[in-house]
């Protein structure tokens, strides 16, 4: 069943800042648990992704190194190597965390799929029960109509018999067998009335059961719609995780290229202990080419 979105961007931002201040990695599960599992993981992921994008937008690109002194350049290059190694480790950790989150979402998807199949089975059973109840109700309605017609016929016969009996009583008040026939007629009439009342009560019970089945079918249809919405959100979440993995792969490739360029610049720059065999014009072109390549990255 889908969880309502009860969290905001500011709440997610505050939780991420608190986790980073405590030295903990702000994963989706940790953020969701810190928010007391309010909303859904998909909503948490969307808001956290937005906040991380805002943080990345505030970072500045590194300045060109070609105007700095050699000693400063060496320090910066060493720092860049350390930063690249740290970035690779961070990317590897984030990739592993993304895989764990993808596995968790896959488990949720399997659970919701199983629930969806179960609900479909229940809906099919409810529809079958409804059809059976509807058929039984129609049968009882037909029987009730037939019983009423029969009761009407018998009532007419009873009225005719009563009329005939009254006439016979006027003519044959002293005849005992006619009195016994009258008593039997009254007994049959009472039995017919009881049978009609029983048929009307059974029809009322069937009508109530039919209404309950219809309400149950509507509830199952609503549950099925909520499960379908949850599956759609999980599919969207899987797509976002695929995009995140692709960006992490591209970032790792960019970091590798930057390190190679920095190593090449360090090996070819003046004052590194080896005598350059290129003339000053070629060295200047090499410096400019290396700087442009770093800036392009």
Characterization of this structure:
The chain is built from six helices and no strands. The chain is mainly alpha-helical and 297 residues long. Mean pLDDT is 78; it is low at 274-278, 280-291 and 293-297. Helices cover 84% and strands 0% of the residues. The chain starts with 8 loop residues before the first helix and ends with a helix. The chain has helices at 9-21, 28-34, 41-58, 70-171, 176-268, 280-296. It folds into two domains: 1-60; 61-296.
How large is the radius of gyration? 43 Å
Largest sheet: none
State the end-to-end CA separation: 46 Å
Oligomeric state of the chains present here: single chain
Assess the beta-strand content as a share of residues: under 5%
Order of helices and strands: HHHHHH
Instruction: Count the beta strands.
Output: 0
Rounded average pLDDT: 78
Provide the domain count. Answer: 2
Q: Please tell me what the overall shape is.
A: rod-shaped
* Low-confidence runs of at least 5 consecutive residues: 274-278, 280-291, 293-297
Q: How many helices?
A: 6
Class based on secondary structure composition and strand pairing: mainly alpha
Give the fraction of residues assigned to helices: over 70%
Give a short synopsis of this structure.
This protein is mostly helical.
SSE arrangement:
Elements lengths: L8 H13 L6 H7 L6 H18 L11 H102 L4 H93 L11 H17 L1
Helix pairs in contact: 1-3, 2-3, 4-5, 5-6
């Amino acid at each position: 069943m889908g969880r309502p979105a009860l969290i905001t961007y500011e709440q997610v931002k505050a939780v991420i800042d608190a986790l980073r201040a405590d030295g903990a990695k702000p994963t989706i599960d940790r953020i969701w648990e810190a928010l007391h599992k309010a909303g859904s993981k998909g909503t948490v992921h969307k808001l956290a992704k937005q906040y991380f994008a805002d943080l990345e937008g505030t970072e500045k690109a590194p300045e060109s190194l070609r105007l700095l002194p050699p000693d400063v350049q060496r320090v910066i290059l060493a720092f860049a190597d350390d930063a690249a190694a740290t970035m690779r480790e961070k990317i590897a950790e984030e990739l592993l965390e993304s895989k764990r989150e993808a596995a968790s979402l896959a488990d949720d998807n399997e659970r919701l799929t199983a629930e969806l199949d179960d609900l479909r089975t229940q809906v099919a059973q409810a529809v079958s029960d409804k059809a059976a109840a509807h058929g039984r109700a129609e049968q009882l309605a037909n029987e009730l109509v037939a019983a009423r017609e029969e009761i009407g016929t018998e009532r007419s016969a009873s009225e005719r018999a009563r009329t005939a009996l009254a006439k016979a009583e006027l003519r044959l008040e002293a005849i005992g067998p006619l009195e016994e026939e009258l008593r039997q007629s009254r007994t049959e009439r009472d039995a017919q009335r009881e049978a009609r009342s029983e048929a009307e009560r059974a029809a009322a019970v069937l009508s109530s059961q039919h209404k309950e089945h219809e309400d149950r079918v509507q509830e199952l249809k609503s549950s099925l719609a909520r499960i379908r919405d949850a599956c759609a959100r999980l599919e969207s979440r899987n797509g976002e995780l695929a995009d995140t993995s692709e960006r992490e792969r591209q970032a790792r490739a960019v970091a590798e290229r930057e390190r190679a360029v920095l190593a090449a610049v360090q090996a070819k720059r003046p004052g590194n202990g080896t005598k350059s065999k290129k003339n000053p014009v070629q060295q200047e072109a090499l410096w400019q080419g290396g700087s442009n390549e770093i800036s392009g990255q």
